[in-house]
Structure formats: structure tokens, C-alpha cells
Design goal:
Shape: globular
CATH topology of the largest domain: Lysozyme-like
Bound molecules: zinc ion
CATH class of the largest domain: Alpha Beta
Low-confidence stretches: 3-21, 226-276
CATH superfamily of the largest domain: Peptidoglycan recognition protein-like
Radius of gyration: 21 Å
């Protein structure tokens, strides 16, 4: 019976999420992964290998939440509220095992090599969405090399930062400018607190100093003054097609034409969909997007009594004191009396 319920629930979820998502490389590890306790960092990686082999490996092992390829296509690998094993031996501000606190994005490319603008713009837009969803500031977008650390070994007698240079370019000011990240981490808190020593002085100069080897590569890139939408429109990732099976890989990415052929047409009414489905952040926006208040949490009425199995889905919203919290990011321990629950 439980298996049947799980099947029905997963089919319901598929229906909700598959509209905009192709799961070509969605990891088979998803069912066994735990929900992450919190999301405090977005960790950018470089695959150091070509797309095809990287995607296959990342998917098989469930090693990131998203992978962005050179043409700006975004693939979903592990569901974004679950733990992906992307950071390995890691520490930030005294907290170890960063997988429990972060979203991991793999970018096809190399830690010190220029990436195409179309790829960087896709990363920028993905990061922008995730920052909004998890309410993170620009400095919380870090590189894997910033949080990875090495155990003592033959060459380095102490625990050290500099186990790898993964994602190093994303700390360079020239690249952060393209990603529209206005700040970066100013110091390494674990080195300062002497929990770690510097194991790679060059890496330290890139992460926290002025070393920026890609400055000339991006010197002439002019960014839009206000909104990035003009650039986004010009550089929209290639639309997925049935023939390649590739394309846009997340439910909040542009869709309409991207529905896989297996989607019955009746699930896609003629009503045109916006290119970007924005995450509502006010009650007015919830109403405008067709959500209605289904009830309020009281001492005698729990969230799951109101929302059922949908209590933790992305299309269920909680409201309290003018805050709007998507169901898939809410900490169950923080569901409180008086919270409104909104669904379609
Ligand atoms: Zn990495």
C-alpha cells in the first residue's frame, strides 16, 4: 500500500514538475537522498572534463544539483532541496560537510579557463533564481576550492585549504562582474581561526587577492545597466528538442515549447506561459498567480492536514508576517501557528 502511495505521489510530482523540466540526467540517487537541513551557500564547481562524460558521472553518483554546459543548457541532477554529494571534505566557518548546507552547481569547463558568455549568463540566471529562493546574498556564492580542505599528508603536515582549485575562476572579479555578483567572501574564516593553514598560496591570491587571469578576456563585455532581461533574451539557452533530448532542465526555466513529447497535450492549455515563472514573494503576487489561501496552521490543525502530501512542494506557499516561503524550502521545525498555506 505504501509503495502504491509513493508511486501515486511521485507521478503527481512528475506531472507538476515535468512541464518545464527534462530529466535526461536526473540522478537515480534522488530517492535515497535526504532533505538538506539548510541552505547557506551556493557552491560553484568546474567539471574539468567535457560535458558528456561529466553529465553521466554526475548523474550516476548524484554529485550536484545542477550542471550547466557550454551552450548554456541547465540540467537538473539532484532535486534542489536534497543533499547532493558535491563538496567532499569541506569546511566553512568551522562547519564541516558543506553538502548539508549548500546547493552545488557544476559548470562544464576548467578552473582557470575562459567560459563562453552564453554559459556564464545561464549560470548567472540560475544563481539569481537560487539566491532569491534561499534568500542568499552575493558573497554566499562561493567556489568549491573555497570550501574544500585537505587532510594532513606527506607534503602538508596540517589540515589545509587548497585541496583543489575547482571553480576558482568564479572568485575572479572579472567573472563575478558577468555573473552580476557584487561581492565575494573577504577572508577565509577557517584560516583566520587557525582551523586550517594555507596549502595553496596562488589559490589564496585568486580567492581573496587581486589575481585575475581572465580580466582581459572579459574586459570588453558590456553589461546592461538595469535589468538583465535584455541580455537574457538575447542569450536564452538553446531550446530543447525531441531530437536531442537535451535542453532546459528545471521547472522554473523557460518552457512552453520544451515539453517532452510524452506530455499529453491537454496538460498544456493554450494559455501562453511567461518565459520566466517568477517566485511569488508577496501575498499580492501569490493571488495574481492564482494561489488561494487554503487554511491557517492552528494548534489543532497541522500543515499536512491542510496541504496533505503537498505540504513541502514548490507550488505550495507558506505566509507569515508578510513573508512568503515556498514549501520545498520550509524547515518543518519552523512551521508555526498562524502560518497561511496557499495552493492552486
Ligand atoms: Zn568541485
Amino acid at each position: 500500500m505504501r509503495a502504491v502511495c509513493a508511486l501515486i505521489l511521485s507521478l503527481l510530482c512528475l506531472e507538476a514538475f515535468a512541464v518545464d523540466a527534462s530529466d535526461r540526467y536526473r540522478s537515480p540517487r534522488n530517492p535515497e537522498r535526504k532533505i538538506r537541513p539548510s541552505t547557506e551557500l551556493i557552491v560553484l564547481h568546474t567539471t574539468e572534463a567535457p560535458a558528456k562524460s561529466s553529465l553521466a558521472k554526475l548523474s550516476e553518483r548524484g554529485e550536484c544539483h545542477y550542471c550547466v554546459t557550454e551552450d548554456g543548457t541547465i540540467y537538473r541532477i539532484v532535486d534542489r532541496d536534497k543533499e547532493a554529494f558535491h563538496a567532499g571534505r569541506s569546511m566553512w566557518n568551522g562547519k564541516e560537510d558543506i553538502d548539508k548546507y549548500s546547493i552545488g552547481i557544476e559548470c562544464v569547463g576548467y578552473h582557470d579557463k575562459e567560459m563562453s558568455l552564453i554559459q556564464l549568463y545561464a549560470i548567472r540566471d540560475l544563481v539569481k533564481d537560487l539566491k532569491a529562493m534561499y534568500r542568499l546574498t552575493d558573497d554566499k556564492v562561493v567556489t568549491h576550492s573555497q570550501v574544500a580542505y585537505g587532510a594532513p599528508n606527506k607534503w602538508q603536515k596540517k589540515k589545509h585549504r587548497g585541496r583543489k582549485r575547482c571553480g576558482m575562476l568564479f572568485a575572479m572579479p572579472s567573472v563575478r562582474r558577468i555573473l552580476e555578483l557584487k561581492t565575494r567572501m573577504a577572508i577565509d574564516p577557517d584560516v583566520r581561526a587557525k582551523r586550517l593553514v594555507v596549502g595553496d598560496p596562488y589559490l589564496e591570491k585568486v580567492l581573496y587577492g587581486k589575481t585575475d587571469t581572465l580580466r582581459s578576456a572579459y574586459a570588453n563585455v558590456r553589461l546592461p545597466k538595469s535589468s538583465s532581461s535584455a541580455v537574457a533574451a538575447q542569450t536564452k539557452p538553446r531550446a530543447p528538442s525531441a531530437s536531442t533530448g537535451g535542453g532546459i532542465m528545471d521547472w522554473f526555466r523557460p518552457s512552453a515549447s520544451s515539453a517532452p513529447p510524452s506530455q499529453p497535450a491537454k496538460q498544456q492549455p493554450a494559455r501562453p506561459r511567461p518565459a520566466f515563472k517568477s517566485i511569488p514573494s508577496t501575498i499580492a503576487e501569490l493571488k495574481a498567480q492564482g494561489y488561494t489561501l487554503r487554511g491557517k496552521v492552528t494548534p489543532g490543525c497541522t500543515a499536512s492536514q491542510i496541504a496533505g502530501a503537498r505540504w513541502n512542494r514548490a507550488d505550495t506557499y507558506y505566509t507569515i508576517r508578510n513573508k512568503v516561503i515556498p514549501g520545498n524550502t520550509i524547515n518543518p521545525a519552523k512551521i508555526e501557528v498562524d502560518m497561511g498555506i496557499w495552493m492552486k
